[in-house]
Design a protein that fits this description.
Strand order of the largest sheet: 1-2-3-4-5
Number of helices: 3
Radius of gyration: 12 Å
Shape: globular
Strand content: 25-35%
Order of helices and strands: EEHEHEHE
Distance between the termini: 24 Å
Structural class: alpha/beta
Number of strands: 5
Length: 104
């Protein structure tokens, strides 16, 4: 598996965080800190791109839900770009897919 990376691309209206590798117990806090830093820098619209994500475990899912909830409480916007079938499976199995604003 490739090492985890969270590549950030700042656009005019939003920031895209492209997650690569496995979003799991070892890497979830990296994504959480990256998004928190972006919010602290004044970015209110963040897109987390899961297209190159290989795997998400329960810790990764928890972080995504926490990020979504924090954004909603703060009046910010968080959306996800769908990942590969295996990645999307965790959202289906846990019935958490409807919690998120999805982009295809």
């Amino acid at each position: 598996m490739p090492p985890f990376r969270a590549d950030v691309a700042v656009g005019h209206d939003e920031v895209v965080v492209a997650v690569r590798g496995e979003l799991d117990l070892q890497s979830a806090d990296v994504l959480e800190h990256e998004v928190a830093a972006l919010h602290s820098a004044g970015h209110d619209r963040i897109v987390i791109d899961l297209r190159r994500t290989e795997f998400i475990d329960s810790t990764g899912l928890r972080v995504l839900i926490d990020l979504r909830n924090a954004a909603e409480r703060a009046g910010r916007h968080l959306s996800l770009v769908r990942g590969p079938r295996g990645v999307q499976r965790i959202f289906e199995l846990t019935a958490t897919g409807p919690l998120f604003d999805w982009r295809d």
